[in-house]
Amino acid sequence: MTAPTQPSTWLDVPVDHPFGIDTLPYGVFSRADDPVRRVGVRIGDLVLDAGAVAAIGRDAGLVGEGPDLATVWQTSSLNAFLALGRPAWTIAREWLIEILRDDVHRDRVSPHLHALDDVVLHLPIEVADYVDFYASEDHATNVGQIFRPDNAALPPNWKHLPIGYHGRAGTVVVSGTDVVRPTGQRKAPPDPEPVFGPSIRLDIEAELGYVVGGATTLGSRIPVDEAMDHLFGVVILNDWSARDLQAWEYVPLGPFLGKSFATSVSAWVTPLEALVPARVPLPGQSDPEVLPYLRGDAFGLDVHLEVRLNGTVVSRPEHAVMYWSPAQMLAHLTVNGASVRDGDLFGSGTISGPDPGSRGSLLELTWNGTEPLTLDDGTTRGFLEDGDTVTMTAWAPGPGGARIGLGEVTGTVRPAR
Ligand code: MN
Questions:
Q1: Ligand 1 ion: residues within 5 Å (CB)
Q2: Which one from 139, 230, 304, 319 is the annotated catalytic residue?
Q3: How many independent structural domains does the chain possess?
């Protein structure tokens, strides 16, 4: 591995900073003295008011036929930008790299850089539809063994299609949002009747979420080889899950209230262009071979996650082990003619690998609570307690040995109401 050597920006950003010029994630921010939300781009520990800079050229009449980035970036979510589609996303990224690389732009850009500590980050997208998949073979196998010990661990369809369910878009929240312990019905096998009350098996799921743009029309499909026209970027996603509610409700239609109370995402959306150096082949889909509509340029992503519970690292999931790729998930999601909307979000499913230290849920890490984890403070956990804080971080390999930071998603459990 060689160290990056190119002086890549006129900004004072160390070459090994995870938010260097090769990362440039998008988010939505406001400031105490200017509460209007707008699109920001992170560089180092600064946030660029990208729309304000783009507006300088537009207002001076210097912009030609290109996309009106000034307008779409001076809105309260990424959705208008997502609507422009892949050609505009590519132009935008090239323009950002240009103005941050060439010193000639310094005087024009500098006034629109804000310290990260001085901004408030908001939910970056207005989530249209939210779907969650189940793409890790180890996770699906572990869950099968725990929930259905008398059956084959993997359902018969699992290697033929990426299994998913529709979640609740309106309860996707940005990193830092507290999560109130959900209340509902549960019935453990020995219970004669269902019990009502706060969940006693509150869990996490470490995932990546894929942000979709370039809306399609009803009746059309997105082939695997065209997925990159619609896959905009990646967030870290925590699919909070109440295992006791889930176990009682999920047959036969899948997860419902056990997951719909909150889904947390990172504030920064990493563009898929930044993850090109992280592309890896899929682990293999030859036994059985998948149907033709799921074949094509279906790359995996070498993203490394870390899960901390009250500061103790409890897992290091590896996204590269995922059986299904985001391009295949999007192709499958639309193969029946379902359209996508700007701001659609789909989760990868819990990222768990064969190594017990790479399991992405407490369900698996503690084997349904029977093997509790010991935290650095000496306390133990089967599932989450009130006051617990879960933080997930991630990074991917960038060009020349650099690291691409994906930021973090964090949340603290509050007592049931
Ligand atoms: Mn999930």
A1: 132, 205, 239
A2: 139
A3: 2
139 catalytic? Reply is yes
The whole domain housing 398 covers 130-414
CA of 104 to the centre of ligand 1 (A): 46
Distance 216 CA to ligand 1 centre (A): 25
| In a domain? residue 1 | no
Sequential pLDDT tens for the chain (417 residues) = 444 445 588 999 998 999 999 999 999 999 999 999 999 999 999 999 999 999 997 777 666 678 999 999 999 999 999 999 999 999 999 999 999 999 999 999 999 999 999 999 999 999 999 999 999 999 999 999 998 899 999 999 999 999 999 999 999 999 999 999 999 999 998 999 999 999 999 999 999 999 999 999 999 999 999 999 999 999 999 999 999 999 999 999 999 999 999 999 999 999 999 999 999 999 888 889 999 999 999 999 999 999 999 999 999 999 999 999 999 999 999 999 999 999 999 999 999 999 999 999 999 999 999 999 999 999 999 999 999 999 999 999 999 888 999 999 999 999 999
> Sheet holding 304-309: strands in order across?
179-180, 403-414, 389-397, 304-309, 312-315
Token pair, residue 346, equals: 């789909």
Per-position b or e across 386-401, b if 16+ CB within 10 A of its CB: eebebbbbbbbbbeee
Q: Using an 8 Å Cβ cutoff, are 70 and 95 in contact?
A: no
Same domain, 259 and 318: yes
Nearest CA to 345 out of 170, 90, 108 is that of 170
pTM summary value: 0.96
